[in-house]
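Hey, I'm writing a tutorial for new members on how sequence and structure tokens pair up, and I'd like a real worked example in the thread rather than a made-up one. If someone can provide the structure for the chain below, I'll link this post from the tutorial.
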Amino acid sequence: MSAQSRALEEGRARRLVDALDGRAIVLVGIMGCGKSSVGRRLAGALELPFVDADTEIELAANLTIKEIFAQHGEPYFRAGEQRVIARLLRNGAQVLATGGGAYMNGETRAAIAEAGIAVWLRAELDVIYERVRRRPTRPLLEHPDPRGELARLLAEREPVYAEADVMVWSRDVPHDAVVLEIVEALEVHLGLAPVTAGADDIPQASSR
């Protein structure tokens, strides 16, 4: 049995899902912070559907994100992103991973606040850069100084990400450890009595 399974045994997952009352858990944060990889594990632990907004956008457009940027530009992509996320939020309880810029849209933030709980996966610049520099599919990082551009994006976006309901640090640790942090932070946010999985199993998280 994994650490994730041990932490969520004896009805812990069901109790959390019941407290969501049909709302989505919406993961927000900069590219490379782990929204998709952590989101899949979180959804599995809670027995909820996992949806990746970027994947849904690509399916709707029949183009990759990089192709949408190249052919139509960022404003076109952002308008489609807003529509897709609004549609996905109507599907009820789920774990929804959003693109790095999605939460910057005020209407999207309002839609998430109404139908979900926003979880910011926060990561340090060096951690993010090491993750994303190996992937040549990030259109916003096609820049002479990708690390500098990433630093600029972080400085611009973090004050907005900070409006999320919950913040959890994304670090180079097993994904199950981050899942446990999210579960604990959501329990705090929802006012649930804590369920202890062991003092060393769940690192500190924060809820707003």
